[in-house]
């Protein structure tokens, strides 16, 4: 009786968790799609005569398409200064949002290493950021329980020493996202599962240190490191080489 009730409760909890994960996934995707549409519309500029109007002039519209946001505003090209500080030789150079390199560090990633909703969000978020034109790299442990037939272009790319063992570095593509797998030879991730051992804090603490060492050894210069949930928390106070850090707590 107790076993049956426990099983039913666990099944109900899993259903609720899956629903919450899908809802979070849809929010991330819709936010990315909305931003993408907005950016696309902002790429349509109003061209004027004279090309760079000054205060007091009444510029006339020349050829070209523009988005005036329902008559509220216009997007006019802006000159960027050259090394001497002058803009004379830079007509037509437009200011742009700087692109960033964003490693996503997590211990779950759908569809290859998914236990709860975090894996879905990590993949959906990575794709949304990548579609904005930024460089994304997911970094996860190389679990022996992963179905590696779902990883495209999987290959080993050397390794490095950390924590008294060698850590193999593998690269591949998961659901369109460049992914780095770290495989320490101390067996931390040769357990046939992602969670469930009594030493999870030790295993994932090691992974955090190894991930930071990987960035140094392979001269990866991230702009932002996005860490997901408690297994990635130690990265926040580690040596990030000046990179900003985002920490997301998943429910």
TrEMBL record:
Biochemical pathway: Glycan biosynthesis; starch biosynthesis
EC number: 2.4.1.21
Keywords: Glycosyltransferase, Starch biosynthesis, Transferase
GO BP terms in the entry: starch biosynthetic process
Domain of life, per lineage: Eukaryota
Residue span(s) of domain Starch synthase catalytic: 106-251
GO molecular function, one term: alpha-1,4-glucan glucosyltransferase (ADP-glucose donor) activity
InterPro entries: Starch_synth_cat_dom
Alphabetical list of SUPFAM superfamilies matching this protein: UDP-Glycosyltransferase/glycogen phosphorylase
Pfam families assigned to the protein according to its UniProt record, in alphabetical order: Glyco_transf_5
Catalysis performed (reactions): [(1->4)-alpha-D-glucosyl](n) + ADP-alpha-D-glucose = [(1->4)-alpha-D-glucosyl](n+1) + ADP + H(+)
Name of the protein: starch synthase
Gene source species: Haematococcus lacustris
Record lineage: Eukaryota, Viridiplantae, Chlorophyta, core chlorophytes, Chlorophyceae
């Amino acid at each position: 009786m107790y076993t049956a009730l426990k099983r039913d409760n666990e099944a109900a909890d899993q259903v609720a968790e899956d629903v919450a994960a899908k809802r979070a996934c849809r929010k991330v995707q819709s936010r990315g799609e909305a931003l993408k549409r907005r950016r696309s519309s902002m790429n349509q500029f109003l061209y004027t005569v004279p090309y760079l109007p000054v205060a007091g002039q009444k510029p006339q519209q020349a050829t070209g398409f523009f988005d005036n946001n329902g008559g509220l505003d216009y997007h006019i090209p802006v000159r960027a200064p050259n090394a001497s500080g002058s803009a004379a030789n830079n007509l037509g150079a437009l200011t742009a949002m700087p692109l960033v390199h964003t490693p996503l560090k997590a211990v779950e990633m759908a569809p290859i290493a998914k236990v709860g909703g975090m894996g879905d969000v990590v993949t959906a978020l990575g794709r949304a950021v990548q579609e904005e034109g930024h460089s994304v790299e997911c970094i996860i442990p190389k679990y022996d329980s992963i179905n590696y037939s779902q990883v495209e272009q999987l290959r080993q790319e050397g390794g490095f020493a950390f924590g008294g063992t060698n850590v193999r570095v593998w690269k591949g593509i998961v659901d369109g996202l460049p992914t780095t797998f770290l495989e320490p030879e101390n067996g931390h991730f040769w357990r046939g599962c992602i969670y469930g051992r009594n030493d999870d804090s030790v295993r994932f603490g090691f992974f955090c240190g190894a991930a930071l060492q990987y960035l140094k050894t392979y001269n990866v210069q991230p702009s932002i490191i996005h860490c997901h949930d408690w297994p990635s928390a130690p990265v926040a106070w580690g040596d990030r080489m000046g990179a900003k850090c985002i920490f997301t707590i998943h429910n």
